[in-house]
Amino acid sequence: MCRGCHPDISASFFRNAHFKSTIDDKLKFEQKGCESCHGPGKAHIEAKGDKTKIIAFSNLSAKKSLDACLNCHTQQLGRANIRRSSHTTADVICSNCHSMHKPATPRQLLAKPQTDLCYSCHSNVRAQFSMPVKHRVNEGFMQCSDCHNPHGADAPSNRMSARPRMMAHALQNEESCMKCHVDKRGPFVFEHAAVRVDGCNSCHVPHGSMNARLLKRPQVFTLCLECHNGAGNFGRQSDGIQLTPSSHSLTDPKYQNCTLCHTRIHGSNSHASFLR
Ligand code: HEC
Ligand code: HEC
Ligand code: HEC
Ligand code: HEC
Ligand code: HEC
Ligand code: HEC
Ligand code: HEC
Ligand code: HEC
Ligand code: HEC
Ligand code: HEC
User: Fold this and answer.
1) pLDDT digits (tens, 9 = 90+) for 204-229
2) Which of 120, 197, 257, 269 has CA atoms 20 to 30 A from the CA of 9?
3) Closest to 207 measured CA to CA, from 120, 117, 146
4) What are 79-83's contacts with CB under 8 Å, separation 24+?
5) Cα distance between residue 17 and residue 13, in whole Å
6) Cβ-count burial of 248 within 10 angstroms (0-12 exposed, 13-18 middle, 19+ buried)?
7) Residue 76 Cα, ligand 1 centroid: separation in angstroms?
8) pLDDT at 99 over 90
9) Structure confidence at residue 158 (pLDDT)
10) CB of residue 66 inside a 6 A radius of ligand 3
11) How far apart are CA 141 and CA 233, in angstroms?
């Protein structure tokens, strides 16, 4: 019935992941095809296409539109706590990113190729990925969703609370960085608490930087001294975080490049001070 008056949409519908429902005998009528999203169409057809007699997304509030999709996708996206994500709370909803009838990517039904899609609102991030040291997102080697889940941060589990900034998880609830940088995962016999507890972001900026190795600071030792400065004792009674030992003369240029000697800065299996 719909095809008669909406030929373009109907003709391309077989490519849509939702087409499957039209041929699934186990589903009830209201769960199939066009009507699974637009609701019963009889009144609309009898009124020769009266827009008020069908669920027209162009007329829906952000919340109603979101609910219409979550009718079916709650379980899949619930893990991401979608109703509380930064996008949802800012009224950025499914149809801002997905296009049901004119998708630019047939898989995932995205309104634009992913990187363009994200930059259409986050244009400042493009500049970060154009800096001298960067992850190669603009070059097409990676995507935002390698690190973020645009639907929201994965829900907290017994091992970890939810991460901020809609960060995706790797296996085992780890930082998404571990998907690719597996050598930093450990476990190591001697862990560097900064890596294990504070996380990669305590020393690196993720998008792009002027500094080698995406470090937060241009000089390695200024980064180390942010913590190894004698201040604070991380909850311990007596000895605080290790000071830079007195054997290290910071006026001697030799000692300024800390990772020249502390080469296993992410953790070591053979030396407590990460020398090898
Ligand atoms: C998975 C949910 C879903 C299904 C299934 C679906 N639609 Fe849509 N439809 C939408 C959404 C959402 C919009 C709003 C525009 C957009 O986001 O792409 C829309 C927009 C429309 C529009 C108006 C906008 C336009 O692009 O012209 C028509 C007409 C329409 N749909 C008809 C149909 C027909 C006919 C079918 C079955 C072949 C169908 N829809 C199946 C969700 C759906
Ligand atoms: C007799 C022709 C006819 C049939 C059959 C028909 N439609 Fe429509 N439909 C129209 C017309 C005309 C409009 C545009 C109304 C307007 O813009 O005010 C429309 C609008 C719509 C819209 C609203 C689009 C928007 O602007 O958001 C949706 C959704 C829609 N139709 C879905 C369907 C579905 C689903 C079916 C099958 C169950 C269907 N139509 C069958 C003629 C028809
Ligand atoms: C009636 C249930 C239902 C509704 C309502 C529904 N979907 Fe789906 N959706 C599905 C099913 C089933 C699949 C196919 C899953 C699969 O292929 O295993 C799917 C797949 C998808 C996919 C993935 C396509 C792919 O290639 O992997 C996207 C994106 C999607 N839906 C978005 C939406 C959006 C946006 C809405 C609201 C406009 C919506 N869905 C409404 C049932 C629904
Ligand atoms: C900010 C943009 C954005 C919003 C808002 C958004 N999505 Fe997505 N969605 C994406 C991107 C990007 C992907 C592809 C992710 C990937 O490649 O891992 C995706 C993938 C999907 C998939 C494929 C399966 C999966 O989990 O990878 C489904 C289903 C889906 N979205 C449904 C929805 C529904 C339903 C809504 C609204 C409730 C929604 N999305 C809101 C951007 C968005
Ligand atoms: C329609 C516009 C729009 C699109 C498209 C969009 N975003 Fe957003 N994004 C927003 C808004 C609005 C916010 C919330 C306000 C803010 O923090 O700037 C936001 C926030 C974020 C945040 C910060 C979350 C936080 O808690 O601070 C991340 C990360 C993000 N978006 C990633 C993405 C990614 C990845 C994509 C592409 C898949 C994307 N966005 C697509 C509008 C958009
Ligand atoms: C290599 C992993 C990675 C990739 C790829 C990535 N991000 Fe991020 N992004 C992060 C991390 C980690 C943070 C959190 C930084 C923090 O908390 O200081 C973040 C933060 C953000 C924020 C919030 C920043 C702010 O200043 O509030 C936005 C928005 C964002 N990312 C958007 C994007 C977009 C858009 C893309 C793709 C073009 C993208 N990100 C790709 C890891 C990544
Ligand atoms: C999808 C895979 C992937 C993910 C996820 C990822 N990276 Fe990377 N990363 C790479 C690749 C590939 C390189 C090599 C540099 C290049 O692409 O030119 C790299 C390089 C780096 C570098 C070194 C840059 C240099 O100049 O040598 C650092 C530091 C880094 N990543 C940190 C991170 C952090 C922190 C995260 C998580 C927020 C992360 N990465 C997530 C793939 C990834
Ligand atoms: C205590 C600070 C610190 C933390 C936390 C940290 N890094 Fe590093 N990382 C460094 C320093 C310093 C270098 C540069 C080492 C050099 O120049 O020899 C580096 C270099 C890198 C490199 C490039 C060289 C290499 O060894 O492959 C990658 C990739 C990297 N880090 C990823 C990560 C990831 C992923 C995390 C989180 C699991 C992380 N880093 C946490 C300090 C840190
Ligand atoms: C975010 C804070 C932080 C940063 C930045 C940081 N560290 Fe650490 N580091 C710690 C903590 C916490 C410990 C474990 C507590 C302790 O035993 O002192 C530790 C332990 C160490 C140890 C082992 C001490 C021992 O017991 O033998 C060495 C060596 C070390 N750090 C070197 C460095 C170097 C070199 C840098 C710079 C590349 C650096 N750290 C950056 C927090 C940090
Ligand atoms: C020339 C090589 C070299 C350089 C450069 C160097 N260290 Fe060390 N560091 C050592 C050695 C050797 C030890 C002693 C290891 C041991 O005996 O267990 C050590 C021990 C440490 C310890 C552990 C102290 C303890 O009592 O166990 C910390 C913390 C530390 N260094 C931080 C730094 C920082 C921060 C920098 C950069 C400002 C730096 N180191 C630069 C060689 C170096």
Assistant:
1) 999 999 999 999 999 998 999 888 87
2) 120
3) 146
4) 79/154, 79/155, 80/149, 80/151, 80/152, 80/153, 80/154, 80/155, 81/152, 81/153, 81/154, 81/155, 81/162, 82/151, 82/152
5) 9
6) middle
7) 21
8) yes
9) 55
10) no
11) 42
- Residue written as token pair 């994200």: 118
CA distance 223 to 209: 14
| 67: CB partners within 8 A, 6+ apart | none
Which of 135, 207, 215 to mutate for ligand 6's pocket (most ligand atoms within 8 Å of CB)?
207
Assigned token pair, 166: 């809609």
Place of tokens 């995507």: 143
Please, what's the b/e burial string for 3-41 (b: 16 or more CB within 10 A of its CB; e: otherwise)? eeeeeeebeebeebeeeebeeeeeeeeeebbbbbeeeeb
CA–CA distance, 264 with 275 (Å, rounded to integer): 6
Q: Which ligand neighbours the alpha carbon of 229 most closely?
A: 10
Q: How far is 80 from 156, CA to CA, in rounded Å?
A: 9
Mean pLDDT score of the chain: 88
pLDDT in the model for residue 253 = 83
The string of pLDDT tens digits covering residues 131-143 is 999 999 999 999 9
Taking only Cα atoms into account, the Rg of the chain, rounded to an integer number of angstroms, comes to: 26
Q: Which residue has the tokens 């709370």?
A: 89
Going from the Cα of 47 to the center of ligand 8, the distance in angstroms, rounded, reads 65
* Tokens of residue 31, six digits: 């769960």
* Shortest-distance Cα residue to atom 16 of ligand 8: 259
Of the pLDDT bands very low, low, confident and very high (cuts 50, 70, 90), residue 247 is confident
Q: Pick the residue whose CA is nearest to atom 40 on ligand 5.
A: 118
Task: Supply the residue whose CA is at minimum distance from atom 24 of ligand 9.
Answer: 273
